[in-house]
Design brief:
Structural class: alpha+beta
Number of strands: 19
Helix content: 25-40%
Number of helices: 13
Mean pLDDT: 87
Low-confidence stretches: 488-504
Strand content: 25-35%
Length: 504
């Protein structure tokens, strides 16, 4: 066997081995499974893991924007006209968040922590100075007081309201409405009820505070449990609503999601501000800083009426708490206060709510809540949590001054809590995804090399065939004489002539 033949056989054998092994590895998904196991071991909430420190102290900056609805026709509304509001904002704060008192529990299978948040005002990202800009809005303390003091107590509450000279609407600075001010009515009430504080604010006592103790699964036993809440404030279930489904505490707190997400699953997030769990569904593929992501967003059914979504019947503790699609009365977890939650500008709500207020203009791009998650790692690459605070106002029994008012879900303000992955974190995710892709697709590389070797093998076969044909053709010629002929001018040469029949 010639050297060329050996080379051809060798290339053929290598080509076959590469193709067979590559295809076999692809079918068995060996490297993909190895990478899957490696990632699920790395993405766990234990000391020293790839994600633990960033879970405790998230590096990307979080911004909290507040938008207020300034009422422009108070007197006309009190006489029965449609209320008109003007949106003012944003007033933007840098939100610093971290997990406090982090403790491993139950032999390291779970971890307890407190989600602590603090806020610092950012003037360059805001429309004005919150200590100067004033807003006319619903006087929330008076509406809370009237809703709680009814029947015989209404007479005494009416006297307190008149004595404090409180009205149904109030004008205060943005800073006061957010972080607190001493209210004249609350001051009078606190004298007879010390448990009632004198200060009211939408974010009062929330700067530097937490939502209570969470216990999370680490994800070591099952990667699908990564970041899943086990208990909140020591409880597995809430007690505010009328069914177990509505009272369920499931999913994460919104800061961690398991790796290897798929488009068909629902993402569950427990939100203490809403006193309930909400869910999100896949909407579309997106890309953030070159990182592929799935966008998950709450569908209309999350805040749908019980007629539209029977699963929401549990949020109707009483007929009075049961409103239409797109709004949720959270009175049961707000000490009876007539607080109603919705998406900004009543996005995804029944048209009647936005139509009842002049100045409402719901838009998906500005008012939708969403999470953009990298499906391989579960990392949040971009998020916008948007929610609106409303007060249900109207006729209240025992208070004659309210008899001219129509029941209205009145918007007070909405917030937008947003985050985009920082460049350093994005670079780490890129590097990790590159390693995952290379390792997972290693069988494709083997098949590719096998393909290249196949091409080389075919070329060698073609050249060998061509050489064989050329040799056979050259054997049709023979020398004229065995000896060399001399030419005086041109030197030696070998003359060739075609073979002839020897017997002819």
């Amino acid at each position: 066997m010639t050297r060329r033949s050996c080379a051809i056989y060798t290339v053929g054998i290598i080509c076959a081995l590469l193709l067979i092994s590559g295809i076999a590895l692809m079918v068995a998904q060996v490297f993909r499974n190895l990478m899957h196991k490696r990632l699920t071991k790395e993405i766990v909430l234990v000391e020293g893991s790839r994600v633990f420190e960033s879970w405790k102290t998230p590096p990307p900056p979080v911004f909290m924007e507040f938008f207020f609805f300034n009422v422009t026709n108070v007197e006309e509304f009190l006489k029965g006209a449609k209320p008109v509001v003007k949106q003012i904002g944003p007033y933007t704060y840098r939100e610093y968040r971290y997990k406090d008192n982090v403790t491993m529990v139950e032999n390291g299978t779970k971890v307890s922590a407190y989600n602590t948040k603090s806020f610092v005002f950012l003037r360059d990202k805001s429309v004005g100075d919150p200590t100067v800009d004033i807003i006319t809005t619903v006087n929330i303390p008076i509406w809370v007081a009237m809703n709680k003091a009814q029947g015989f107590s209404a007479f005494f509450m009416t006297m307190m309201i008149k004595g404090s000279k409180s009205g149904f609407f109030i004008t205060r600075t943005v800073h006061e409405l957010l972080w607190g001010y001493e209210d004249a009515l609350l001051e009078r009430i606190s004298k007879s009820s010390p448990a009632v504080g004198k200060v009211f604010g939408l974010m009062y006592k929330k700067n530097g505070s937490n939502d209570g103790e969470f216990v999370f699964h680490t994800g070591e036993q099952n990667y699908l449990d990564y970041g899943r809440i086990e208990t909140w404030k020591g409880k597995r279930q809430l007690t505010f609503w009328s069914t177990n489904e509505s009272n369920s505490i499931i999913g994460s707190d919104g800061s961690a999601f398991h790796p290897f997400l798929n488009k068909s699953e629902r993402i569950y997030v427990f939100t203490p501000d809403l006193c309930r769990t909400i869910y999100m569904e896949f909407e579309k593929d997106v890309e953030v800083k070159g990182i592929p992501a799935y966008r998950f967003t709450p569908p209309r059914s999350v805040l749908a009426s019980k007629e539209e979504n029977p699963a929401n019947e549990g949020f109707c503790v009483t007929p009075k708490e049961c409103l239409g699609t797109g709004v949720l009365k959270v009175s049961p977890c707000r000490n009876g206060a007539p607080v109603v939650a919705s998406f900004p500008h009543f996005f995804l709500a029944e048209d009647k709510y936005a139509a009842a207020i002049g100045g409402m203009s719901p838009q998906r791009s500005h008012h939708q809540t969403f999470l953009d998650l990298n499906p391989t790692t579960g990392v949040i690459v971009r998020a916008n949590k948007r929610a609106q605070v409303n007060i249900l106002i109207g006729k209240v029994g025992g208070y004659p001054d309210t008899r001219t008012l129509n029941e209205t879900v009145f918007p007070v303000m909405f917030l937008n809590e947003s985050v985009v992955i920082d460049d350093a974190s994005a670079a780490r995710v890129h590097k990790l995804l590159m390693i995952v892709n290379v390792v997972s697709n290693f069988p494709l590389i083997i098949v590719g090399l096998g393909g290249i070797m196949l091409i080389v093998f075919i070329i060698l076969l073609i050249r060998a065939h061509q050489q064989k044909t050329s040799t056979e053709d050259s054997s049709l010629y023979t020398p004229v004489n065995v000896t060399e002929k001399d030419d005086g001018q041109n030197g030696n040469y070998i003359g060739l002539m075609a073979k002839t029949d020897q017997q002819a």
